[in-house]
Structures are given as C-alpha cells and as structure tokens.
Batch of 3 targets.
Target 1
Amino acid sequence: MSLRRLRAVFDRSERALARGVPIRKTAVGIWVPSAIEQIVEVAALLREMGLLGAGAPPAPVVEAGMGDGRVAAVLAHLEPARPVYGIEWDPVVYAQAVENLRALRRRGGYAAVRLIEGDYCDPATYASCGLDLGAPLVILNYPDGNQQRLARFVARHAGPDATLCLFTHDRSVDVAELPLRARRDMPVAVGPDWRVSIYRVRPSA
C-alpha cells in the first residue's frame, strides 16, 4: 500500500473521531491527530538516532497511547519486518484504531501490527500480548499529561535496554525519572516543529 492510500484511511478516521475539533479528550488524556508526513519525518529521525532502520536492534516498537493507530501503521509501513504494538485505553478511540487496521489489512500487509486495549502503565497489558518488559523495547508516546506516569512505569518495570521516546510540539515537556540520552528539535514540512526526546533505562549493575 502507498502512503497516499494509508493517508486516506486516517483522513476518514480523523473526521470520524475529531468531528471538527483538532483535539479530542479521551478517557485518560487527549488525542491530537498528527499528519502522516510528520510521522514519516519523525521515523526518519529515529533512524538517524539508531532506534529504527536496518542497523538498529530488532526491538519491538510500542506506541503507548496510540489514538487511531496512525503512528503504528506508518512504522509498520516503513519497517514491515519489525513487530509494532499499539496500546490505547479509550474504548471509542481503540475501536477506531481496530477499524483502521482492518481497512489497511484488506489492502495487504500490516500483519506485524498488534493492537491492545488497556493501560500502557499496567504490566498485565504487556503480558496479555506476550510482550516481555524485560527485553529491549522502544516505547513511543505523544505526551498528553501522562508522561511522568509512563516514565515512572518504564523506570520501574522495563529492562535496562528499554528506550522511551517522547515526541511533541511542547518544548517544556521533560521527565526526571529516566536519564536523557538525546534530544532533537526537528523542523517539518507540514505543521509546527517537533521535539524528540530519547530516554534510556539506566544500565543494570
């Protein structure tokens, strides 16, 4: 499937969920739909930083708070061999993500994507789909006020090779629970600039 067709699926999704409002309040946070082009550019930056791409470790990618599933879908489109998981707590938004994935699969591909309804700060959510929190993971999140809670969860439950990646337009976002590995401000072709912050769990002694 081309990115153009993928974009068409999520344009319909955005109209169904947002109903003309750019920010949707969910059960536990907010959902802000990002342009597909922005997500592609963030993925390119993650390749430059060694988290994705042919030379990166084959760690599963987990989108914590996936919204309608667009980030997970773009990553699976760009890296079809890498396991991609999306976790969403809000039942309405989760149902839309499931519908979107079905639409994509009817056009071929996306077999490596797994969607989970649940709390991304609950170990049981990861266990329900066979994800080992102690193994290397790349956890992505668009901060919506829950980033400190997520960072505490990663620091407490994830293994030493886990990475938390926050991508946002808000320059004030930071977490104290994990050491910062890298940070990039990234101008994009469409919309406001991104800030991408990479945090790594402390190496085990």
Note: The mean pLDDT is 88.
Target 2
Amino acid sequence: MRKELHNTKVTVRLRKSAYRNEWYLYIESYPVYTAGKSEPQRVREYLNRIVTTVVWDKTRTARTTSSSKSYKPKRDLNGVIQCKSEVDQEACIYADEVRKLRQRE
C-alpha cells in the first residue's frame, strides 16, 4: 500500500524530551492521503537522533504562555537546523538528507 502525496510538504522538526534538556529530531509530512481515509493525515517519522545544542532564533517565537516563551530553531539558508556542537550539526544535516528523500517520494 503506497501513500499518495499531493502537494505534501516534508519538514524536519524538534520534539522536547520530557526528562532531559534535549530534543528529538523527526520528519513530519502533511498532508498525506491514505486509502480508506477521507481526511489528510499528518505523518511523523522519528529518526532516533537527539540534539542538545540547538541555536534558538530569539526573533521568532513559537509559543507564549503567561510564564514562559519558546522559540523556533535557527535555520541556515538551506533550511537545516543550526547547532553549536559539530556532532549535533551532523545529525541535523542527516535529518535534512532524509527529508530530501521523503520529499521526492
């Protein structure tokens, strides 16, 4: 069973770990239409990669609550998430390469 992709955008995103100061890299595809469902689905594929040194873009707020603010990650010209650590940066580059493959499917 193959997924139909109509104008599907594939992006690399971060999910905060509940227990540590680290973020999981995952790929999100939307809209993905599957057989038997009338509504488009949001498909997440986790890459088993963790980053801890993300550079946050202080000019782009993601969420604001009464007690705190969260920010979106800073990205380079190619859309790759920026990190301070070289190992974390390689994980983000890997995630972007996987994203390119999924975008062409």
Note: Residues 4-104 form one domain.
Target 3
Amino acid sequence: MTDPEDVGEERTENVPVPEETDEVERPDVDGQTTLEDWGWSA
C-alpha cells in the first residue's frame, strides 16, 4: 500500500468509475475522448 506503483494502479480504477456514469449518454464519444484527454495512452 505504501508502494508508489500501487497508488498509480488504484488511480486507474478510480477514473473509469465516474466515467461509466457519463458513458450512459456517450458510450463511445465520452469513453474514447476521456481516455485520450486524461492521457492514458501517453
């Protein structure tokens, strides 16, 4: 839990959680745009 790598992994799971709520209105647009906007690909 004190490892820096663990924190990074937890953040990745915390981001998609709220995103799913918006996915209801925009499953493809909101999903793909948000991922790229957050910089997950980078």
Note: The two ends are 25 Å apart (CA to CA).
